[in-house]
């Protein structure tokens, strides 16, 4: 028998031992495991989307942000409608505003209510609160809904601080209380759910050969990273969906799905008495009492949705919206009933790139009006027509470029003339990149024109004074194989226009700037007879492609290189 | 304490508490009668009553259905005749342990090694002592009696040691055994890729660590619980995976059972003092019955047989002094080789212990020894569950810790003797690890089945 006798222990030292053990457990749980779990949830694939775990860290960042700040809260509809960076640039604010987007998939007033105290603590000036027909449903028995609530409450409980707990606790249903951690012990219990996966993820990170260059698995940057602030304003949006479908395919989608959806809770809102209404009342009361203004946002749904809704189906939504918008300190901007064109939508109820751009302009103007204490009724500003006009600005420099030396370089942004896309479904434009010299075909949503002449074009007036063969080089890049091509053709004096040559930067470039003259047929060259004034036209083939410089050489053996030409 | 133990047993095993009371009463009566008589025939008769009662209970509840199943299988093969119905009796919790314990009581009295307990309550405490009732260790009656005869003192030192043992046991069970079980179960129950040597070796290693951490954890918890009540239970393990021979292994593994088998089976059968044939018979019988004791299944019998063969093989092999001759000037090398060979064979036998499906067993055994196997690392990684690196780390930590624990005389002892601050830090950290590394699915103690 092994004797485990130890030196005499008295009650006091035993009590001390036990207390130290307890404190050690609490210390490890709070300061080691909890941060480990939080980081792993954000950075790894423990959660389907690390965004679920950033709410409270985001509010801390917002608190530290100087200048005017606004926080958007709601579901994925608000997430895909708000481009914080764009709004802050479009606003009149001179000090630099921060518009933060905390919209999240599946979010509803009840689940988002629990961040109210954190919003107040962040001292944000304005809350952009989603209020659509989809937010006013009566709670129903559903395993998936219960699972979602459990998931959101658990994650938020792990990441929230003590001072983020507010009187929202009184609204939590009894059945959901086990998922809300209000004490350290409960928080530790919640952390345990994800602890093993977090430890495994930490080991994976340690085992990774180059942890510093590993890709972001969850699409969410680590807290405090260089792009953290930018991500909080402009999150990663969903990739295009309807934008890539034909009109018939979109219509077929609605015919197949909308009859059922129209009868569901999303499009049958209540006017009062639901947990969501209670949550709205709570959020609005708390924010107003703390001097935070609220802008209620009704984001439009795809126009075909309205074809499946009966005339008065959304009356209760309207009455709720109008009621809340009349509260002091609350402003309502209901764009739901506006007739936004189909190409502004990604899917049934989410805005796409163009819709987001328009929403950006509208919300920016609205915030400016609120800051100026102007009328609470928001005019439609800019109107859709004004928005189209703005986008249709395409001003060339009217310059003529002279080829007088062996090698002549033309900066791509110095185009002489240009044209916009002819197809309304392709509202693309060659734009200056802003980040470096050059022009880029925006927006990059993975589209090509049906015909090259349907896409936008930039053109260059070029005068060549000597006969001979001239070789055309393009410094270009594409981030992927779907971003890499454009088409080139020439107008020549007394001759028909040349056919289109497709220039590609990928895969040689693979996201890097490269010089290329490889066209779809052969190296791009043209015979010039005497003194010629030509027009070189560069057409959209794939959006996202960038063009920095154009080089014209009469030396067939000349190959430009970055280090020489830079 | 007796009443507490009966309540514990009733909660764990229901009406089977009556069996325990019955067995306890019979052995109490037998022990007293043996002790009171000087007539050898009467003494023997009472001993037989005790042994037959205990073995009958064990046979009926643990082995009857197994024998019927085996009979039916044989009869079906011979005459295709309809078989006997099984009884489907539920196995009373801890029956293997308490029957061996109470049998040793009457045998020791018969051998005049000890006097009976003074009171039925005291004996009841011994027979049903709840901390070790379910899965041991098998306590000798005289050891327990000596402690009961002392006044029970609830000293702070006992509480500290008891808590250390319990937390250390939980640490081994939850952190190591339950986590590694996930990998072992995945490989052995799925029965796929059994030709992959990496998977079979890894599964065997995982199960070897699992069963040690599982069983020794229960022993630690039992010892700790008993210690809180002022009772010291015997140690059951001594870093078994540091053993350098099969004999050494059995001196370190399930010590209370191996010494019980030695004292009450191997030696009475002739032991090693009556020639090689008797020794062989005694050893093989002891090991086969030792295997059968673990469970009513052929794989346990084969496991016992395999260990019997290893012990016999080792006896003959060690007589040749081959390693000593080959490594005359390299004693360390000799020890390392002996250790590697011993552990290779021990982990090989764990396959027999773990795998009940005969097809999977033979396939795994062939692969383990390199017959027709292959190694495919990507298949290895793909087949394992999602949590991999943590389990690899745990296995490495166990191997290092196991070796260090043996070298430093046991971590439990080292932790127990620390001062308040260090003890608190270590125990607090262990509790945190237990809590946060606990797998989502709990795994029953393996030896609860026995």
List the helices and strands and how they pair.
The complex is a heterodimer of chains A (566) and B (450).
Chain A: H1 11-43, H2 55-64, E1 69-73, H3 76-81, H4 84-90, E2 98-101, H5 109-112, H6 116-121, E3 126-130, H7 143-159, H8 184-207, H9 228-233, H10 247-263, H11 275-289, E4 293-298, H12 315-325, E5 330-334, H13 353-371, H14 384-391, E6 400-403, E7 407-411, E8 417-419, E9 429-432, E10 439-442, E11 457-464, E12 468-477, E13 485-491, E14 501-504, E15 514-516, E16 525-528, E17 532-540, E18 546-553, H15 562-565
Parallel strand pairs in A: 1-2, 1-3, 3-4, 4-5, 6-11
Antiparallel strand pairs in A: 7-18, 8-11, 9-10, 10-18, 11-17, 12-15, 12-16, 12-18, 13-14, 13-17
Helix pairs in contact in A: 1-8, 4-13, 7-8
Chain B: H1 2-13, H2 17-36, H3 40-79, H4 95-110, H5 120-128, H6 130-133, H7 141-149, H8 156-190, H9 197-228, H10 246-252, H11 255-266, H12 275-294, H13 298-319, H14 322-326, H15 331-354, H16 358-368, H17 377-383, H18 389-407, H19 411-416, H20 420-436
């Amino acid at each position: 028998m092994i004797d485990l006798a130890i030196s005499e222990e008295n009650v006091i030292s035993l009590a001390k031992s036990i207390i130290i053990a307890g404190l050690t457990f609490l210390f490890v749980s709070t300061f080691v495991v909890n941060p480990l779990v939080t980081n792993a949830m954000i950075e790894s694939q423990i959660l389907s989307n690390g965004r679920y775990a950033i709410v409270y860290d985001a509010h801390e960042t917002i608190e530290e942000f100087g200048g005017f700040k606004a926080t958007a809260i709601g579901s994925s509809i608000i997430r895909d409608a708000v481009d914080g960076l764009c709004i802050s640039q479009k606003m009149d604010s001179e000090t630099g505003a921060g518009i933060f987007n905390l919209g999240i998939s599946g979010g509803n007033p009840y689940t988002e209510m629990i961040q109210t105290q954190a919003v107040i603590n962040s001292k944000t000036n304005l809350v952009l609160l989603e209020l659509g027909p989809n937010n006013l449903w009566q709670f129903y028995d559903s395993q998936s809904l219960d699972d979602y609530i459990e998931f959101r409450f658990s994650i938020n409980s792990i990441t929230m601080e003590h001072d983020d707990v507010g009187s929202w606790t009184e609204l939590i249903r009894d059945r959901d209380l086990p998922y809300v951690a209000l004490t350290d012990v409960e928080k530790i219990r919640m952390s345990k759910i994800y602890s093993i996966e977090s430890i495994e993820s930490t080991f994976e990170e340690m085992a990774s050969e180059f942890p510093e260059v590993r890709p972001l698995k969850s699409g969410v940057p680590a807290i405090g990273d260089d792009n953290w602030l930018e991500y909080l304003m402009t999150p990663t949006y969903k990739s295009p969906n309807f934008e890539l479908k034909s009109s018939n395919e979109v219509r077929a989608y609605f015919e197949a799905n909308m009859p059922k959806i129209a009868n569901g809770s999303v499009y049958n809102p209540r006017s009062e008495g639901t947990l969501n209404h209670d949550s709205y009342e709570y959020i609005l009361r708390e924010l107003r009492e703390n001097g935070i203004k609220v802008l209620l946002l009704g984001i439009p749904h795809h126009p075909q949705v309205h074809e499946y809704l009966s005339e008065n189906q959304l009356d209760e939504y309207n009455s709720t919206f109008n009621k809340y918008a009349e509260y002091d300190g609350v402003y309502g901007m209901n764009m739901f009933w506006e007739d936004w064109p189909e190409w502004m939508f990604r899917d049934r109820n989410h805005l796409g790139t163009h819709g987001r751009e328009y929403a950006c302009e509208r919300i920016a103007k609205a915030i400016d009006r609120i800051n100026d204490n102007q009328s609470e009724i928001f005019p439609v500003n800019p109107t859709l027509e004004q928005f189209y006009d703005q986008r249709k600005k395409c001003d060339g420099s009217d310059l003529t470029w002279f080829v007088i030396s062996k090698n002549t370089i033309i900066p791509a942004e110095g185009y002489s003339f240009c044209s916009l896309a002819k197809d309304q479904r392709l509202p693309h434009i060659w734009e200056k990149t802003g980040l470096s010299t050059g022009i880029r075909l925006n927006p990059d949503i993975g589209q090509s024109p049906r015909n090259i002449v349907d896409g936008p074009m930039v053109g260059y007036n070029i005068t060549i004074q000597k006969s001979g063969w001239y070789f055309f080089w393009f410094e270009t890049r594409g981030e992927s194989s779907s971003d890499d091509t454009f088409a080139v053709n020439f107008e020549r004096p007394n001759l028909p226009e040349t056919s289109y040559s497709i220039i590609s930067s990928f895969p040689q470039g693979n996201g890097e700037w490269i010089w290329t003259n490889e066209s779809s047929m052969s190296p791009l060259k043209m015979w010039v007879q005497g003194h010629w004034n030509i027009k070189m036209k560069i057409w959209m083939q794939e959006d996202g492609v960038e063009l920095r410089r154009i080089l014209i050489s009469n030396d067939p053996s000349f190959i430009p290189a970055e280090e020489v030409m830079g | 304490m007796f009443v507490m133990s009966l309540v514990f047993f009733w909660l764990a095993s229901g009406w089977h508490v009556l069996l325990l009371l019955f067995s306890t009463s019979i052995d109490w009566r037998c022990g007293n009668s043996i002790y009171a008589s000087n007539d050898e025939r009467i003494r023997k008769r009472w001993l037989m009553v005790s042994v037959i009662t205990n073995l009958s209970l064990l046979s009926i509840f643990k082995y009857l259905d197994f024998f019927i199943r085996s009979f039916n299988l044989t009869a079906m093969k011979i005459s295709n005749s309809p078989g006997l119905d099984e009884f489907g009796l539920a196995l009373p919790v801890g029956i293997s342990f308490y029957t061996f314990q109470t049998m040793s009581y009457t045998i020791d009295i018969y051998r005049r090694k000890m006097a009976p307990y003074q009171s039925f309550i005291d004996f009841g405490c011994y027979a049903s002592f709840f901390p070790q009732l379910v899965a041991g260790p098998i306590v000798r009656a005289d050891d327990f009696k000596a402690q009961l005869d002392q006044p029970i003192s609830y000293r702070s030192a006992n509480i500290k040691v008891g808590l250390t043992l319990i937390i250390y046991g939980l640490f081994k069970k939850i952190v190591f055994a339950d986590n590694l079980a996930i990998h072992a179960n995945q490989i052995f129950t799925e029965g796929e890729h059994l030709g992959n040597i990496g998977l079979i070796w890894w599964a065997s290693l995982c199960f070897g660590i699992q069963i040690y951490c599982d069983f020794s954890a229960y022993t630690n918890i039992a010892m700790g619980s008993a210690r809180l009540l002022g009772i010291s239970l015997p140690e059951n393990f001594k870093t078994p995976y540091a053993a350098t021979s099969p004999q050494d292994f059995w001196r370190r593994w399930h010590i209370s059972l191996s010494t019980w088998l030695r004292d009450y089976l191997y030696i009475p059968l002739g032991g090693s003092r009556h020639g090689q044939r008797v020794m062989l018979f005694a050893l093989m019988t002891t090991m086969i019955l030792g295997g059968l004791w673990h469970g009513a299944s052929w794989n346990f019998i084969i496991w016992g047989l395999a260990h019997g063969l290893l012990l016999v093989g080792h006896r003959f092999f060690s007589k040749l002094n081959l390693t000593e001759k080959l490594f005359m000037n390299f004693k360390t090398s000799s020890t390392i080789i002996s250790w590697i060979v011993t552990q290779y064979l021990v982990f090989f036998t764990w396959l027999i212990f773990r795998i009940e499906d005969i097809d999977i067993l033979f396939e795994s055994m062939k692969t383990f020894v390199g017959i027709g196997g292959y190694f495919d690392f990507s298949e290895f990684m793909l087949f394992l569950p999602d949590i991999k690196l943590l389990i690899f780390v745990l296995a490495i930590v166990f191997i290092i810790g196991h070796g260090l624990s043996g070298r430093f005389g046991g971590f439990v002892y080292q932790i127990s003797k620390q001062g308040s601050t260090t003890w608190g830090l270590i125990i607090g950290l262990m509790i945190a690890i237990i809590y946060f590394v606990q797998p989502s699915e709990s795994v029953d103690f393996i030896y609860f089945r026995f």
